[in-house]
Design a protein that fits this description.
The complex is a heterodimer of chains A (157) and B (346). Chain A has a single domain, classed as Arp2/3 complex 21 kDa subunit ARPC3. Chain A is 78% helix and 0% strand. With 346 residues, chain B is α+β, with helices and mostly antiparallel strands. Chain B has two domains: 56 residues; 221 residues, Beta Barrel (Thrombin, subunit H), CATH 2.40.10. In chain B, 28% of the residues lie in helices and 23% in strands. In chain B, the strands form two sheets. A six-stranded antiparallel barrel of chain B has the order 1-2-5-4-3-12. In chain B, a hairpin with a 7-residue loop joins strand 1 and strand 2. The longest helix of chain B has 46 residues. Classes of the chains: A mainly alpha (157), B alpha+beta (346).
Chain lengths: 157, 346
């Protein structure tokens, strides 16, 4: 029960943090993608099933705020969780370096995937801008590293 | 592991299919309904989050306003304290003004117009006889105008004008042997004639021979006085003279209420004002007014002219106390024992 409540709070808190940062702290479109980061982290630590469920729900939350491409973020986060779950069998994602590198790569992959989905379904490549594409992976790496530290500290207790 | 992979694949397929369905049929009713439902679930997060953020973000401004309000509050409190002090001062001045008005701005007897004048000169040889004041014909002073003086917050009889010059006048004091004024005693309301003796005391003659006289009685001007307004304090009985078997009346010695040696300002009750003077002039004398208002003393049966001779109740005359056979002062003696002004109809 406590785990469920904690998970619910994390689920809501992550969405709130994403909204708040994107609304009030984003500069030139660059902001950490907390929901992607947490999806990767959950998939790396808890497996792809939980990661995909959380990623799909968070993706719907991101898609609700978007006028077009409803379901695109849900699909990308779901795929991200799945592939991280697959990758964790080959790579030790408990280590900070591989986790940061995976997050870095999946951030760009998410940008490209979102663009391609736009190209397929709306005939236009969804491009977040050079600054956002250039800075967001680093912000995501910082975010996933911080989140992993907090996760590990809480698990060690 | 195999089971987890299988479940993951199934979930991946299901969620991917669902996502692709959303992407493929964005305008279909089920997808739009699902999106509306998702929006119904997730929108409160942003809505209430923004409201809470604004509230939190506005806190510094509200704190700043609170601090500013506190500073303004302190400033206003200080201003209020100054205002209270000012109010207290105004109240005190108002009371003082009321006292001064009662003491100085007197309601003159009907037909009289008061004018204050300074004592300008005294004759050392005739200390108890006369003095000169700095008001003359220029201020409407005329012969035989009654002169009053302040004493303990009330006006008392001093004398009358016997010489008028352009800017000065000579006042004949009651203590002059040529002065006389009809008066009555407060205790018995016995009428008599107060006369000067060229000394510090007066003498009241023609009192009823059968009356019981006592020291300390107050002596007031009589309504029958042709010069003074009625009920003006003249003095107090200092001594009752022994009866003279050869006289049909009694006499008493009176200590004048007005101390001739200490008079600085005098009020002259004029018969008419100077031209252009519609109401009694305001005048602030040099003497310090008493702390208590110049109201009639409650224990005294005598009224005080300091307030209003017109409104003050007259002491009841004990007519029965004076037998019918008692000698009564002649009306011609009611005021003056001599005639100075040849134009005076008396």
């Amino acid at each position: 029960m406590i785990g469920f409540v904690r998970g619910f709070v994390l689920f809501i808190g992550a969405m709130f943090l994403q909204w708040w940062w994107n609304t009030h702290l984003a500069y030139w479109g660059a902001a950490p993608q907390f929901l992607l980061v947490l999806t990767i982290l959950i998939a790396a630590r808890r497996g792809p099933v939980l990661g995909m469920l959380a990623g799909f729900a968070w993706g719907l939350y991101l898609d609700v705020a978007r006028a077009e491409l409803f379901g695109a973020s849900a699909l990308i986060l779901t795929l991200a969780a799945y592939f991280v779950g697959v990758a964790r069998r080959q790579i030790d994602l408990r280590a900070a370096g591989p986790l940061a590198a995976t997050t870095f790569l999946f951030t760009w992959a998410a940008f490209i995937g979102l663009g391609l989905l736009g190209l397929v379904f709306t005939k236009s490549f969804e491009w977040g801008g050079f600054i956002a594409v250039a800075l967001t992976p680093f912000l995501n790496v910082a975010a996933v590293t911080t989140a992993a530290i907090v996760w590990d500290v809480r698990e060690d207790r | 592991m195999q089971r987890e992979t299988r479940i993951a694949n199934i979930i991946l397929g299901a969620l991917s299919a669902l996502s692709l369905l959303f992407l493929s049929l964005p305008l279909s009713t089920p997808v739009r309904s699902f999106k509306a439902g998702a929006g119904y679930l997730f929108d409160p997060l942003a809505y209430h989050g923004e409201a809470g953020y604004r509230r939190i973000a506005g806190s510094p401004e509200r704190i700043r306003q609170l601090l500013q309000a506190d500073i303004e509050n302190e400033s206003l409190r200080a201003e209020l304290r100054r205002g209270e002090w000012l109010s207290t001062t105004v109240s005190s001045l108002s009371l003082e003004n009321e006292r001064l008005r009662k003491a100085l701005v007197l309601k003159a007897p009907s037909g009289r117009f008061p004018a204050w004048a300074h004592v300008m000169e005294r004759d050392p040889v005739h200390w108890y006889r006369s003095l000169v004041v700095d008001a003359g014909a220029d201020r409407g002073i005329s012969l035989n105008d009654p002169v009053l003086g302040p004493r303990d917050g009330r006006l008392v009889a001093v004398g009358r004008v016997v010489d008028v010059r352009p800017n000065t006048s000579t006042v004949l004091l009651l203590t002059d042997e040529l002065s006389a004024a009809a008066a009555y005693l407060s205790s018995g309301t016995l009428e008599g004639l107060v006369q000067g003796q060229d000394g510090p005391r007066l003498r009241m003659n023609y009192l009823n021979a059968e009356a019981q006289l006592s020291d300390g009685d107050s002596v007031y001007t009589s309504p029958t006085s042709a010069t003074f307004p009625p009920d003006v304090l003249i003095g107090r009985v200092a001594r009752v003279n022994p009866r003279d078997p050869f006289l049909t009346f009694q006499s008493v010695e009176i200590t004048p209420a007005a101390d001739a040696s200490s008079l600085q300002e005098l009020m002259i009750l004029r018969a008419r004002p100077v031209e252009g003077e519609g109401k009694p002039p305001a005048y602030v004398p040099a003497y310090a007014p008493p702390s208590a208002p110049a109201a009639p003393v409650a224990t005294s049966t005598a009224p005080a002219i300091a307030i209003s001779t017109a409104a003050a109740p007259r002491p009841r005359r004990r007519a029965a106390a004076a037998p019918a056979s008692a000698p009564k002062p002649e009306p011609v003696m009611a005021d003056d024992a001599f005639e100075i002004n040849p134009e005076d109809p008396r």
